[in-house]
Amino acid sequence: MTSTTIDSPRTPAGSAKRRGVNWEKWGWIYMRVSGVVLLVLIFGHLFVNLMVGEGVKAIDFAFVGGKWSDPFWKVWDTLMLWLAMIHGGNGMRTIVNDYARSPRLRKVLVGAIAASVVVLILLGTLVVFTFDPCPVVPADQAHLLPSFCPAP
Ligand code: HEM
């Protein structure tokens, strides 16, 4: 009969010291730190959009245009986008690591998560910094512009 010895919970993973950056540890710390910052960003975002002034009734194209004309909200929204996407992506990676049974499936799923995080961060950042509520358009399309834009 064989017996198994189980190390005490706080025993280091290997007897030999591992080299290089411990990415899992930094990922773990990132989830906690970004979670705290996201609490402020997300609840600040919800409070300003849904409760201040006229509240939810005020949300329309002009409301978004107005917010994104202010560098403060551009930085706020970009930070929220980056932190939440990386937090959500890393959290999904953890779930895939826990449940995917084959290494190949794990690679495919983690690759798909990483790709969608990168694409959404790039697209979102592009929108926040290039958004122009009154773009220059040909005269026959001027009727498509919001009413607050100066006449072309
Ligand atoms: C309101 C602010 C938030 C806080 C305080 C927060 C906090 C946390 C913490 C501490 C963990 C690690 C849990 C663990 O390791 O057991 C976690 C995991 C996770 N978070 Fe968040 N989070 C927040 C917002 C978000 C958002 C906006 C998303 C989506 C974009 C998200 C998606 C996830 C996912 C998918 C996991 C992995 C769940 C798991 O391991 O079972 N979280 N969160």
UniProtKB/TrEMBL annotation:
The chain crosses the membrane at residues 27-48, 79-96, 108-131. Keywords: Cell inner membrane, Cell membrane, Electron transport, Heme, Iron, Membrane, Metal-binding, Transmembrane, Transmembrane helix, Transport, Tricarboxylic acid cycle. Its cofactor is heme. GO terms for cellular component: plasma membrane. Gene3D superfamilies: Fumarate reductase/succinate dehydrogenase, transmembrane subunit. Its main location: membrane. The keyword Transport applies. It holds the Pfam family Sdh_cyt. Pathway: Carbohydrate metabolism; tricarboxylic acid cycle. It is found in: Cell inner membrane. InterPro entries: SQR/QFR_C/D, Succ_DH_anchor, SuccDH_FuR_B_TM-su. One of its GO terms (molecular function) is electron transfer activity. The keyword Transport applies. One of its GO terms (biological process) is tricarboxylic acid cycle. It is a multi-pass membrane protein. Membrane-anchoring subunit of succinate dehydrogenase (SDH). This is Succinate dehydrogenase hydrophobic membrane anchor subunit. The lineage of its organism: Bacteria, Bacillati, Actinomycetota, Actinomycetes, Micrococcales.
